[in-house]
Each structure stands twice: as C-alpha cells, then as structure tokens.
From TrEMBL:
<keyword id="KW-0063">Aspartyl esterase</keyword>
<feature type="domain" description="Pectinesterase catalytic">
    <location>
        <begin position="275"/>
        <end position="406"/>
    </location>
</feature>
<dbReference type="InterPro" id="IPR012334">
    <property type="entry name" value="Pectin_lyas_fold"/>
</dbReference>
<feature type="active site">
    <location>
        <position position="243"/>
    </location>
</feature>
<keyword id="KW-0134">Cell wall</keyword>
<dbReference type="InterPro" id="IPR000070">
    <property type="entry name" value="Pectinesterase_cat"/>
</dbReference>
<keyword id="KW-0325">Glycoprotein</keyword>
<feature type="domain" description="Pectinesterase catalytic">
    <location>
        <begin position="90"/>
        <end position="253"/>
    </location>
</feature>
<dbReference type="InterPro" id="IPR011050">
    <property type="entry name" value="Pectin_lyase_fold/virulence"/>
</dbReference>
<comment type="function">
    <text>Acts in the modification of cell walls via demethylesterification of cell wall pectin.</text>
</comment>
<keyword id="KW-0964">Secreted</keyword>
<protein>
    <recommendedName>
        <fullName>Pectinesterase</fullName>
        <ecNumber>3.1.1.11</ecNumber>
    </recommendedName>
</protein>
<keyword id="KW-0378">Hydrolase</keyword>
<dbReference type="GO" id="GO:0030599">
    <property type="term" value="F:pectinesterase activity"/>
</dbReference>
<dbReference type="GO" id="GO:0042545">
    <property type="term" value="P:cell wall modification"/>
</dbReference>
<comment type="similarity">
    <text>Belongs to the pectinesterase family.</text>
</comment>
<dbReference type="GO" id="GO:0045490">
    <property type="term" value="P:pectin catabolic process"/>
</dbReference>
Length: 413
C-alpha cells in the first residue's frame, strides 16, 4: 500500500472516530489505529510531536468563541526575513502559511548555482514526498524544528525504484548541503535478512562538503547512503538493521547513538565520513541468549582501492538496540571503518566484523577500534584482521582533518 493510500485510509477512520468522540485527540486516535507499528518505531514520535504542535499552535480558541481561529494566525507576519548579501530564507509549511507547502517546490525555487546560501526553513510536520536536490542547487540548508518534529518521509524500495541507489526519500547531489534539526525517513516495511529488493534508503548523499547537525535518519536496510564526498555528522540519531550506513564517502560521525534493530547513533561525519557524538540504533530482530546467528550490520563501506581517501570514522558515539550484529562488513575489498571512544552494548558479536565471506579481503580491509567501551567492545575474540589501534594509529581518525574539515567545516559549525 502506498503512503497516499495509507493516508486516505487513516483519514476515513479518523473522521469516523471524530464523530464518535470529538474530544479524543488526533494523536490518540492514530495510536489506536496502530499507525505507530506500521513502520519504524520512531514514526509514532513524529506523529505525536507533529499533531501536538499542530493542536497547540493552530487550533487556539478565544474565550467565549467556539470557532477555530485562523490556522495561520500564530505564524510570524515578518517571516521569512529579508535577504542579506550572503543568505536568502524561504519557508515551507504544509498548511500554506508561508512560501511553499512542499519541500521539493522550495528546492526547485532556488536559483541555479547560487553563490548565496539558501536557508529552507521547514515547519514542524511530516512531509510525505520524495525530494531531490540536483547538482545545480548548491549551498542549500534544510532547517527543521527538531528531529522528532520535522521529517521528510517516503517509502520506495530497491524494487519500486529500480535500484537501491534510487530509493532514497531524499537525494542530495549538490555540494555544500547542510541539514539541521530534521529527520529523513524511509517508511518501507522492515525486511528480513536475505529479502530481495527490500533495501530502502532514507537519504542518499552524493555531493561534497555536507554537514548534518542534530538530525535523525530512520529506516531498516541501507538507511543512510553516504555515496561519495566529504561529510560531517554531529549529534545525530541513526536507526537501521542491515548495512544501515553504507557507501564510499569520507565521513566523520561525532557523539552519536546507534542501535541495531533500532540503532541509535550519535555521529560526526567528515570527508571520509566523520561521525561524532551520534547515536546508532539497531532495529534487528531480538535474538535468544547464546544464539550465534547474525541478523544485522552497522556499516558496509565501499572503498575499492587503497588509493581512495575514504572511510567512516565514529568518535564518541553510542551503539545499542536489538539483534546480534557486526560493526561492519567488507562491501568492497578496501573497506575502511574506525570506531573510537564509542560505547557498544552486547548486541555486537564477539568477532565484531565480517569480510563479506571473502578471505582475500582480510589483507586489504582497514577495520580499527580505539578506546571503546561497553559489553560489545571486548576485542579479545575479534576477527584476526581487526586492528586494535594505539594512540599514533588512531590519531588521523580523531579530528576533522580526516575529511579536510579544517579547510571548509568552520563555515557550518
């Protein structure tokens, strides 16, 4: 069933419920209808925040007046602000209270190859649309109202979009993209390991110098497609089950939380993907105590040559959730992933990593761990090709220089 069909079904049910009990909140009706379980668990959070914000801000009643006030009465009259020499601001509100009602229409409005930064301010709500930012729409910022309040959602899969790479709810092909306080979600059904064509990307990032601050990424298999370029993630939340961070970009993930089956990752992403202070949440199926089967993996990095300066670096992140998973598997022969100062729960299998069932890759992959903690960080039974890094070996992966951040990142954080 498509998202549109789901929406119509829910609308009919909600109207019926409203007639029966007009005082029951829309949020509670949604919960009773089971929408919170039709897709990733966080979906319920978005609806709760969205509906509550909608009720609070737009349905004010004046004393003695039973009429609903104008839906846009609380919207700032002087917003968006005037352009400056360096920035332009346009806004998106699904109720029609400002420039655009869809995110894609706002993106289309941005001038090609604009030297200015265009801030697309996106009001609270769930925006059901597939969004693409082409290469000629550079210097765009998506400014949400909180990663549990503003979300862009679609439900394509590898099958429906004719390829995993095209399934992203949001696809970013331009350089210098920034996202703050917003979530990207693919609401396709959660697949089982081995399901064909069920990969469902929440966002694909193919431009250079991208920054994500306080953002959420929600999906199951292949949630975050870090395709290519230098990317930085800080204070983000990443959820998935199988290879939910994959690609061949340079990324740093900082201060993130990650969980499998629900992977909550705080990450800092730079050039070779630098993820800092992120939460990684695995949403793989829970496993019985003592079970040895694997049903998920955090990363699948795609470096094809030792000459490529790409990789995923996780710093000060947390990793938890459900399932029994690997930190990464060698999607390509020279896969490179490093976890530093990351707290890991016992969902991590003792061997930690997988060579994609190709022993020849044991000599070419670079999988490193440095000063990690938690039940899943015990390296005594790690695969023999995993490196327990010392201070000198870990140093290149602990700063934004891993993604050349000293040359460009200061403009965004």
């Amino acid at each position: 069933m498509s998202l549109k069909n789901i929406s119509f079904t829910l609308l009919a049910a909600l109207l019926a419920a409203a007639i029966i009990n007009p005082y029951l909140s829309l949020w509670h009706r949604l919960i009773e209808l089971g929408l919170a379980t039709f897709s990733p668990p966080i979906f319920a959070t978005f609806i709760a925040n969205s509906i509550e914000g909608h009720r609070h801000h737009h349905h004010n009643k004046h004393p003695g007046d039973r009429k609903i006030a104008n839906i846009c009465e609380d919207f700032p009259p002087d917003f968006p602000p005037p352009d400056t020499n360096t920035t332009s601001t346009i806004c998106v509100d699904r109720n029609g209270c400002c420039n655009f009602t869809t995110v894609q229409s706002a993106v289309d409005f941005v001038a090609n190859y604009s030297p200015k930064r265009t801030i697309i301010w996106i009001n609270s709500g769930i925006y059901y649309e597939k969004v693409a930012i082409p290469r000629n729409k550079q210097n765009i910022t998506f400014q949400g109202q909180g990663y549990t309040s503003t979300a862009i959602v679609w439900n394509d899969t590898a099958t429906s979009s004719r390829g995993t790479f095209y399934s992203g709810s949001v696809q970013v092909f331009s350089n210098n993209f920034v996202a703050r306080n917003i979530s990207f979600m693919n609401a396709a059904p959660i697949p089982s390991p081995g399901d064909v064509g069920a990969q469902a990307v929440a966002i694909r990032i193919s431009g250079d110098q991208a920054v994500f601050l306080g953002c959420g990424f929600f999906g199951a298999q292949d949630t975050l497609h870090d395709d290519r370029g230098r990317h930085y993630f800080k204070d983000c939340y990443i959820q998935g089950s199988i290879d939910f961070i994959f690609g061949n970009a340079s990324v740093k993930f900082l201060s993130m939380h990650a969980r499998h089956a629900v992977l909550n990752l705080q990450l800092f992403l730079i050039l070779e993907k630098f993820l800092q202070n992120c939460q990684l949440i695995s949403m793989a199926n829970p496993v019985d105590p003592g079970a040895k089967g694997i049903n998920g993996a955090v990363t699948a990095h795609g470096r094809t040559s030792k000459d490529e300066n790409t990789g995923f670096a996780f710093v000060n992140c947390t990793l938890g959730g459900t399932g029994r998973i690997w930190l990464g598997r060698a999607w390509r022969p020279y896969s490179r992933v490093i976890f530093s100062y990351t707290t890991m729960t016992d969902i991590i299998a003792p061997e930690g990593w997988n060579d994609f069932n190709d022993p020849t890759r044991d000599q070419t992959v670079f999988y490193g761990e440095y000063n990690c903690s938690g039940a899943g960080a015990n390296t005594s039974m790690r695969a023999p090709y995993v490196q327990k890094l010392n201070d000198t070996q870990a140093s290149p992966f602990l700063s934004v220089s891993f993604i050349d951040g000293d040359q460009w990142l200061q403009y965004y954080i």
